[in-house]
Design a protein that fits this description.
mainly alpha; elongated
Length: about 80
């Protein structure tokens, strides 16, 4: 899947979200979107990195400590 395909998937999902709101204004959309995208992204990357946090952090362009903090926040690790 290309970057463009991922962008289109996100765009389509957001359009559906706004349709489902039926005119109600969203609240905290940015934080909600980051959280719902971040957790599955971290889970998939950790799986492909075979739970190696250093490798996953490198792939994500994050500091290992930042990755660890996010993994704890999302309850992916304790």
């Amino acid at each position: 899947m290309s970057k463009k395909q991922i962008e289109e998937c996100v765009r389509t999902s957001l359009e559906g979200y706004f349709r489902d709101l039926r005119g109600t204004e969203p609240d905290g959309l940015y934080d909600m979107l980051v959280k719902v995208v971040e957790k599955p992204m971290l889970e998939v990357v950790m799986n492909h990195a075979e739970q190696n946090q250093s490798r996953a952090a490198e792939w994500l362009g994050l500091n290992r400590n930042t990755l660890r903090k996010k993994l704890v926040e999302h309850k992916i690790i304790k």
